Protein: EG45-like domain containing protein
Organism: Actinidia chinensis var. chinensis
Amino acid sequence: MSKMRFSSFVLALVVGWLCFFQVLLVSGDIGTATSYDPPYLPTRCKGFDKEQFPEGGLFVAACEGIWDNGAACGRRYRVRCISGLKRPCRDGSIVVQVVDVCRTSPCPATLALSNTAFDSISKYPTAKINIEYAQM
């Protein structure tokens, strides 16, 4: 009988751990993303400083809600495509850094991704996609 209790305990522990891990994986916000084209300079964060862009070219311009009057400069977000027309999503997620505020008002998306960043998560460069994003 004690072997049965131990097995039940282990099973409950594993199920609990999996549920907890699943919650961690989906703890982001939902929004939209588009790509935006160069020129990327000047930005509202650091003007004409080319050193502001993270290695690999994974950066974004944020909508006003995220921009927070410039407080978002340098923040990093994990971004994952979750849906869109014609199944645009690539597998996986990327980490991007905020370097600017959206240049159009109203902003067409929650995050405007650099072409490199957008191509990393979407098969179609002109798509508007639904994303999950979480500040890191």
About this structure: The chain has one domain: 29-135. Strands lie at 29-36, 59-62, 76-83, 94-101, 111-114, 129-135. The CA atoms of residues 32 and 130 lie 4 Å apart.
